[in-house]
Amino acid sequence: MKSAVETLNPTRVRLSIEVPFEELKDSLDAAYKKINQQVTVKGFRKGKIPARVIDQRFGRGAVLEEAVNDALPKFYTEAVNEGELNVLGQPEVDITELKDGELLAFTAEVDVRPEIEIPDYSGIEVTVDALEVTDEEVEKAVEQLRERFASTNPVERAAAEGDVVTIDLEAKVDGEVLEDGVAAGVSYTIGSGELLDGIDEAVTGLEAGGEATFTSQLKGGSAEGKDAEVTVKVTAVAARELPELDDDFAQMASEFDTLEELKADSRKRLETTKQYDQATQAQERVLEELLKLAEVPIPEKLLADEVQTRKHNLEHHQLGQMGLDLEKYLEIQGKTLEEFENETSEQAVKGIKTQFILDELVNKEKLNVNQEELTEHLMRRAASSGMSPDQFAQAVVEGGQVPMLVGEVARGKALAVVVEAAKVVDTNGEIVNLEDDEDEAAETAEAATEAKADDAKAEEKNEA
């Protein structure tokens, strides 16, 4: 076999491949064998039909077609390896010559990873939010905990904001009661905004047994988006009572003996959360600066596939779960279809650039992923997916996605190298010393590269 590589542009090549006919022998034998198992010729046992009879009855062309289809992937792969090409996606193959007994010649055009020169990133400087926890934030955290321990007691008075009412609902559209528009015994906290628009005003001031009617646009169900006449009847009113903020509350709601100890722990937890947010912010901003420095040609077909994948995932996974279609989603977002498509394309470009640059850094810095790092990343991914580590690991192995996870960790390590070299200051002008959290960096890099609802398929496409 002979092959030659022609560079069409920085992200696409054309392979020209010539195969002497004798190298097709195995594929021809396999073609005859396959046809033998599929056809019947009177006078011959199945599987024992001579090649000359198959040629006479079904045509030599059918055999050659089967043999070529079998051989092309093998010779294409050999040419790719010989040319040391890092290909992306499937090739477009064109058979240019097929001479029976002499020669098979074909071309294959395919996208390739562009050669990328890693820029000098030592001068990157970014600003992040200062690590400050205010007394107001601590008080809010404690108040939220207090809300969780609130109790309710029935009262014989008109309902007011903050009360918990038990209600029956009936919704009509065009004077007809909806089949799915009736509910009884619904518990609702006035002011929570968790039900229909207008319900807070309707039930406020009603006592048990009171009834009101209001108009509201339905948020779901068979008449979603339509205006309905809703009748609400209050069957019970209960007041929420919050526990006193004292040492007894601290002992009831936590492992601490005093309220001051509880507040100190809340402050510490808020600081930890803000440290995480600060580190993530630093990684995201350093990555943005790195992307600005690097010139990365984007393969057109890969970009088109990535955009399509992202749109498909949004429409058929995320929106489908929320009971929305793209048109309704765009209406809620206040975006035109053109704005959405432009935004999706920009996100796809950023994801591809991020992966290409960080993968190149992995190679340049010779970064490896050990079993412990992979296991830690798997545990985090399992936790975020709501699966047990064993279930997640099984799904990863069965889906052939172990290389994908290895790539995520490796890219995280590459991003951590860049962050370590960057100067990070907070809004007070203080130098920020970030802990070396490569798994956290992996999540940042993954967020930049993935197509939200189906990142495994997108990753496989990029690494095909």
Automatic annotation (TrEMBL):
Composition bias (Acidic residues) maps to 433-443
- GO terms of molecular function: peptidyl-prolyl cis-trans isomerase activity
Show where the PPIase FKBP-type domain sits: 162-215
Q: Which reaction(s) does its UniProt entry say it catalyses? A: [protein]-peptidylproline (omega=180) = [protein]-peptidylproline (omega=0)
Q: Which UniProt keywords apply?
A: Cell cycle, Cell division, Chaperone, Cytoplasm, Isomerase, Rotamase
What is the annotated localization of this protein? Cytoplasm
Pfam assignment, any one: Trigger_N
Q: Which PANTHER family match?
A: TRIGGER FACTOR CHAPERONE AND PEPTIDYL-PROLYL CIS/TRANS ISOMERASE (PTHR30560), TRIGGER FACTOR-LIKE PROTEIN TIG, CHLOROPLASTIC (PTHR30560:SF3)
Q: What does this protein do?
A: Involved in protein export. Acts as a chaperone by maintaining the newly synthesized protein in an open conformation. Functions as a peptidyl-prolyl cis-trans isomerase.
Family as reported in the entry's similarity comment: Belongs to the FKBP-type PPIase family. Tig subfamily.
The domain section of the record reads: Consists of 3 domains; the N-terminus binds the ribosome, the middle domain has PPIase activity, while the C-terminus has intrinsic chaperone activity on its own.
| Name of the protein in question | Trigger factor
- This chain's source organism reads Streptomyces rhizosphaericola
